[in-house]
Design brief:
Length: 524
């Protein structure tokens, strides 16, 4: 399993677990917020009720202080004044042990007669008692100040005002609020008919000073709709947090692994494929060989640039792995053609590290012996762009390769390290003139002079010459007049996969091909 697959598996698993936990946390946050908010509304209603009762007690206390505890004109007038001054009081009744008088005789409320179950509940102040009184379809709250066994002042409150406009508009269509006296004895309710049996939640609060409480019931469906926008925002945050958690966990617990492991996996699953660019004779443009190039095509169809992965191949010691894979693939792709025409050459790029490794020769001999290629058909290209670090500059390995039957080509000649000295030390069979010079050869006399110098040195050293990067006919003509017999570039053919290459080669079937001599222009 590649690093990417392992990373994705751990990332997905961690993200799913984090998402599940985040979802549970999100639901808990929503529920806790709703509970706190609606319980707070119940507490506000309790406070509102306490204040209404306090005002009634204050009004009755003022009457007591003023001596209005016996029925008479002045007491009745004082009662009416208190009702008018205190908007939450519906009526005040005075009992003096002999008679009963009220602020309004036509109010219709007679506390003792209308008390439900003859039940008065004492407040924390034992002089104060509360009861639910019934008058037709209206339930009211009676607050009594007991003066002694026979005397009392009672205020009847407008309870509908106590629960007015408490619930937020967004849940009123699915919620009810109850003002209760004692344990579950309702005084006034609103929205009871909207409650769905068994599908609601309850939020309650009770007074610490009076035997009153408030209960708010909200349907589950109303709660879900109420939290809709917040729920969506929190879910988005939960998803983002889960993705971040998955990434962090995957980075922490999945080691990237070596590039060699990833590259080996890419080879195993067929992502590394060989492309071939023809090397042609400039006089008739027939192919005399092919340079083999690696291409990395991922399974999703995307390509990894050679400029990106080739340096990593070299830095991570994967060059032998790549060369082995490419030669075996070339044998499968072109083995029959090379067996039929022993004059064809296959150019393989190697790194300076391989050229300086004395074990490389035996390794390459063993590899090629497992294929249908002749050793003389394999051209080893060594780039001048990277320096050789050994004392003899790779001379010993180069000589050993040639003694084993391989040919050596110096790639990118004139552009890199060691210059002309490398042409001598490697004892190369051929030199490849870099595209840098070919591009300017039409217009720059200095470039032409340098190329002529390289051609002269190569001929003196009996090396074959190949010009790279030819894109225009004029370039090919100039190079040919300089004595260069072989070239490669987009003018003739681009690098192509095996299927396209076989179709390209079919155009030249029947054309006689001869092996290039090492002192003449030859394929690399």
């Amino acid at each position: 399993m590649s690093w990417r697959v392992r990373f994705f598996v751990v990332f997905a698993a961690a993200a799913l677990v984090a998402l599940a936990l985040a979802y549970a946390a999100e639901r808990s946050i929503i529920e806790n917020w709703q509970r706190a908010y609606l319980t707070g509304l119940a507490e506000q209603t309790v406070d509102r009720t306490d204040i209404a009762i306090d005002r009634a007690v204050i009004s009755m206390g003022a009457m007591i202080d003023a001596g209005h505890t016996r029925c008479g004109f002045e007491t009745a007038l004082a009662s009416r004044t208190r009702v008018f001054e205190t908007g939450g009081i519906r009526d005040i009744e005075v009992r003096d042990g002999v008679s009963i008088c009220r602020a309004f005789n036509d109010s219709g409320v007679v506390p003792d007669r209308d008390v439900v179950g003859d039940r008065w509940l004492t407040a924390r102040n034992h002089h104060i008692a509360l009861a639910r009184v019934e008058h037709g379809t209206i339930d009211q709250l009676a607050v009594r100040w007991r003066l002694d066994a026979d005397r009392a002042i009672t205020a009847v409150l407008n309870t509908e005002l106590l629960i007015f406009d408490i619930l937020p508009a967004s849940i009123r269509y699915g919620a009810a609020i109850d003002l209760e006296l004692g344990a579950g004895s309702g005084i006034v309710s609103k929205g009871v008919e909207l409650i769905e049996p068994g599908a609601y939640r309850t939020f309650s609060a009770v007074s610490s000073r009076y035997p009153t409480g408030v209960r708010i019931r909200v349907n589950e469906s109303a709660l879900a709709a109420w939290s809709g926008d917040t729920d969506r925002l929190l879910m988005i945050a939960a998803i983002l947090a889960a993705l971040a958690t998955g990434y962090v966990v995957a980075r922490a617990f999945v080691s990237r692994g070596s590039f060699a492991d990833d590259f080996r996996a890419a080879i195993a699953c067929g992502e590394i494929i060989a492309h071939y660019q023809p090397i042609v004779a400039l006089d008739d443009e027939r192919p005399v060989g092919f340079e083999m190039l690696a291409r990395w095509r991922r399974r999703d169809g995307s390509f990894v640039s050679p400029a990106r992965f080739i340096p990593l191949v070299e830095m991570n010691g994967c060059a032998d792995m790549l060369v082995s894979h490419l030669i075996r693939q070339a044998d499968a792709d072109l083995g029959a053609r090379f067996a039929a025409n022993r004059n064809l050459r296959l150019a393989v790029n190697i790194t300076p590290c391989q050229l300086e490794d004395p074990r490389f020769v035996d390794w390459l001999v063993a590899l090629v012996s497992e294929t249908g290629f002749e050793r003389s058909q394999i051209v080893i290209e060594v780039t001048e762009r990277q320096p050789l670090t050994s004392g003899d500059g790779g001379h010993a390995v180069s000589v050993a390769l040639q003694e084993a039957g391989f040919e050596i080509a110096l790639d990118d000649a004139g552009t890199g390290h060691n210059g002309l000295s490398l042409m001598k030390s490697l004892c190369a069979n051929r030199v490849k003139i870099d595209k840098l010079f070919v591009d300017e050869i039409e217009n720059d006399f200095r470039t032409r002079a340098l190329v002529e110098m390289l051609v002269g040195v190569a001929k003196e050293l009996e090396m074959g010459i190949v010009a790279e990067g030819i894109e225009h006919r004029e370039q090919a003509v100039i190079l040919q007049t300089m004595g260069i017999g072989h070239g490669q570039g987009y003018l003739f053919a681009r690098p192509m996969p095996a299927g396209e290459l076989l179709a390209y080669m079919a155009r030249f079937e029947g054309v006689e091909q001869t092996a290039p001599r090492s002192g003449q222009a030859a394929a690399a």
